[in-house]
Amino acid sequence: MRAARARSAPACENVPVHLLNADLHSHSRFSDGTLSPTALAQRAHANGVALWALTDHDETGGLPEAAAAAATLGLGFVPGVEISVTFAKETVHIVGLGFDPTDAALRAGLARTRSGRRARAQQMADGLAAVGIKGAFDGALRYVGNPELVSRTHFARWLVETGVCSDTGAVFRRYLSEGKPGYVPHQWAGLGEAVRWITQAGGVAVIAHPGRYKLTVNEEYALFSEFRTHGGRGVEVLTGSHGQADTAKYTAMAQEFGLLASRGSDFHSPEESRTDLGRLPDLPGALQPVWTALARAGSAWAARASLPV
């Protein structure tokens, strides 16, 4: 089940790869994306994606619309979420795939994770006001589809619109990263909690974009070890923020820790994202794709997606 698409070729012609064009990490206006779930499904389908997941931050409210749009298009769909976790004083993200979105414990955990975001956002606005940038809280809210999920990304978009910075990357460097005026740390869910919410709801937990975290070698090893101990099963080897060196590194770590490999663009916006939906390289053939585990779950959505085992 391979769909044609324009993307980079494998480094070597004879290296085996998994040909399914799966994009299992993307965001809609229900968190910090700019498109509706329907528009995302349409874009994924137009780009040749065969299996797609919507993985909004700490929120599953967009999944019904996403599932309906995917069904209309004949696009394979996986329910997803990206949960914010605090590990070694760093924010780490765990993607959940293929779970039951109605699971009570998962829903309660996500609601608790979301609950501190608004207060944190007000503190961020206070920090920006202290350096002369007024009105940031109300400005950020203009970009929010869900007021419970106001985030640094929404502040960044407003700061670009008002001309404070030329692009969102500059906003993060100057105002919203650790040690800068608008940065406010937050205590998210624990690693074990997040993995448990996903797995007990019948899903597969995946470490998102591991190359982005500022962890020491020992801290990263501890992350993978503890994640596996808690029942985590996958890692994103291919994602929008990974270069070739990252892909090689996390291919090796997936093999070392016996983890399934995932592939997702982490798409947020046509104007901002490094990689469009469905435009990643193929997954290295030496790895076991995460969608094989999703297919074996045997749930109704998996049957509709006709996933390869």
Q: What is the secondary structure topology, with strand pairs?
A:
Elements: E1 17-18, E2 22-23, H1 37-46, E3 51-54, H2 63-73, E4 76-87, E5 90-97, H3 104-114, H4 117-129, H5 136-141, H6 152-161, H7 168-176, H8 191-200, E6 204-207, H9 217-229, E7 234-239, H10 244-257, E8 260-264, E9 283-284, H11 290-297, H12 300-305
Parallel strand pairs: 2-3, 3-4, 6-7, 7-8
Antiparallel strand pairs: 1-9, 4-5, 5-6
Helix pairs in contact: 1-2, 6-7
Characterise this structure.
By secondary structure, the chain is an alpha/beta fold. It is 39% helix and 15% strand. The protein has 12 helices and 9 strands. The strands form 2 sheets. A 7-stranded mixed β-sheet has the order 2-3-4-5-6-7-8. Helix 9 links the parallel strand 6 and strand 7. Helix 6 packs across helix 7. The chain is globular, with a radius of gyration of 19 Å. The N terminus is likely disordered.
**DSSP strand count:** 9
Number of helices: 12
Radius of gyration computed on alpha carbons: 19 Å
Determine the fraction of residues in helical runs and give it as a percent range.
25-40%
Q: What would you call the structural class?
A: alpha/beta
Cα distance, first to last residue? Answer: 12 Å
Give the averaged pLDDT, no decimals: 88
Strand order of the largest sheet: 2-3-4-5-6-7-8
- The string of secondary-structure elements, in order, is EEHEHEEHHHHHHEHEHEEHH
Largest sheet: 7 strands, mixed
Please tell me what the overall shape is.
Answer: globular
Strand content: 5-15%
Give the uncertain stretches in residue-range form. Answer: 1-13, 302-306
Instruction: Work out the oligomeric state of the chains in this entry.
Output: single chain
